[in-house]
C-alpha cells in the first residue's frame, strides 16, 4: 500500500471524475485507474461505483473516506513534526521550477530585499512543466514556480493547490540579426519560402499550447517548418543565435541577446503574450521554514497588491 493511493482516492472523491483526477495528479488516466484498483484490492472491497456519472462512493467507500482523510493528514503532520524536531540544520525550503525561471527569475527573486531578509536555505529542482507539477503533487517539493496563463493547461487549477503572483514575463518571437542589423528571418515575407522553426518538445505542453494560441491570432498562416525541438528555452535561444531559425522565448531569456544586438523581436506585440509567474503550494501543512516563507509572501502580497516582482525590464 502506498500513500499516493490514498491521495489518488481523495482526488477522485473531490472531482468525481477519473480523467480530471488523473490530470490533477499528473499521471495518465489508465495509470490512475490502476492505482485506484490497487487500493481497492488492498482494502478488499470496491470503493468506487463506476456505473454512475459522475462516479459515486460505495458503502465501503463512504466508510473508508473519513479514515483515509485522517490518515493522510496524520502522515504529513508526522513528517512535519519530524522535520521540525531535526532542527534548523534540516530546514531547507525545496522548490521545483521551470528551467528558464530557475535561471533567470529565481536568483534575482531570492536576492530581492523582500526575500533576502528571510535568509532562506533552499534547494532547486529545474524541470519542465509537468515534472514540476508531479514533484508538487507527490510532495517532493514545498513549492513550484511556473508560468501561468488563463489559456494554459488547467492542471494547477483543478488540484488542491494555492498560488501567489510573483511577477510577469512575456513570450516573444525572436530571430538572429544579419550584418546590417535586420532580422535574418521575416514572418511577413510573401515569397512562400518556409521559415525554419525551433520548437518546444511535445512533452513541454505548457509553452507549446501558449504558442498555438499566439499563432492562431496571426492574420495569415505562418509558413513555419520545424527543424529542431528542445524542452529548454536556453537551448532554443542558442540555436536562434546560431542562425538556425526563429523561436518563441520568454523575454527574460532573450533580453541579454536583444540588448547585445544579437537577437531581435519579430512579429510585434501580436506575436507575443504576457504570462504570470506564480508560486504554487499544496494545501496542508508544510515544514516550519516553508510555512514561514508562505506567510511572508502572503504578508507582502497584502501590503503591495498587484506589484510585479519579476526581473526589471
From TrEMBL:
Membrane-traversing stretches: none
Gene3D superfamilies, per database record: Periplasmic binding protein-like II, Winged helix-like DNA-binding domain superfamily/Winged helix DNA-binding domain
Superkingdom classification of source: Bacteria
Keywords: DNA-binding, Transcription, Transcription regulation
Listed CDD domains: PBP2_LTTR_substrate (cd05466)
Residue ranges occupied by any HTH lysR-type domain in the UniProt entry: 1-58
Pfam families per UniProt: HTH_1, LysR_substrate
InterPro entries recorded: LysR_HTH_N (IPR000847), LysR_subst-bd (IPR005119), WH-like_DNA-bd_sf (IPR036388), WH_DNA-bd_sf (IPR036390)
PROSITE patterns: HTH_LYSR
Stated family: Belongs to the LysR transcriptional regulatory family.
Name this polypeptide is given: LysR family transcriptional regulator
Protein source organism: Microvirga puerhi
Amino acid at each position: 500500500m502506498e500513500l499516493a493511493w490514498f491521495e489518488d482516492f481523495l482526488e477522485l472523491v473531490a472531482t468525481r471524475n477519473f480523467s480530471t483526477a488523473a490530470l490533477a495528479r499528473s499521471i495518465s488516466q489508465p495509470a490512475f485507474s490502476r492505482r485506484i484498483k490497487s487500493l481497492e484490492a488492498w482494502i478488499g472491497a470496491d470503493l468506487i461505483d463506476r456505473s454512475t456519472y459522475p462516479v459515486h462512493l460505495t458503502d465501503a467507500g463512504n466508510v473508508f473516506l473519513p479514515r483515509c482523510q485522517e490518515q493522510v493528514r496524520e502522515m504529513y503532520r508526522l513528517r512535519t513534526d519530524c522535520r521540525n524536531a531535526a532542527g534548523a540544520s534540516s530546514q531547507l525550503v525545496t522548490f521545483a521550477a521551470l528551467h528558464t525561471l530557475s535561471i533567470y527569475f529565481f536568483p534575482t527573486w531570492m536576492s530581492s530585499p523582500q526575500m533576502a531578509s528571510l535568509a532562506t536555505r533552499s534547494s532547486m529542482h529545474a524541470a519542465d512543466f509537468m515534472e514540476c507539477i508531479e514533484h508538487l503533487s507527490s510532495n517532493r517539493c514545498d513549492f513550484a514556480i511556473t508560468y501561468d496563463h488563463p489559456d494554459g493547461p488547467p492542471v494547477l487549477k483543478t488540484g488542491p493547490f494555492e498560488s501567489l503572483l510573483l511577477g510577469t514575463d512575456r513570450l516573444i518571437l525572436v530571430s538572429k540579426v544579419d550584418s546590417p542589423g535586420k532580422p535574418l528571418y521575416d514572418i511577413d515575407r510573401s515569397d512562400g519560402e518556409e521559415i525554419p522553426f525551433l520548437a518546444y518538445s511535445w512533452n513541454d505542453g505548457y509553452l507549446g499550447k501558449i504558442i498555438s494560441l499566439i499563432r492562431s491570432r496571426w492574420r495569415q498562416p505562418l509558413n513555419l517548418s520545424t527543424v529542431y525541438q528542445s524542452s529548454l528555452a536556453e537551448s532554443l535561444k542558442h540555436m536562434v543565435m546560431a542562425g538556425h531559425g526563429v523561436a518563441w522565448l520568454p523575454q527574460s531569456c532573450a533580453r541579454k541577446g536583444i540588448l547585445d544586438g544579437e537577437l531581435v523581436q519579430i512579429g510585434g506585440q501580436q506575436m507575443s503574450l504576457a504570462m504570470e509567474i506564480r508560486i504554487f503550494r499544496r494545501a496542508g501543512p508544510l515544514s516550519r521554514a516553508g510555512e514561514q516563507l508562505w506567510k511572508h509572501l502572503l504578508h507582502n502580497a497584502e501590503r503591495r497588491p498587484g506589484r510585479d516582482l519579476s526581473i526589471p525590464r
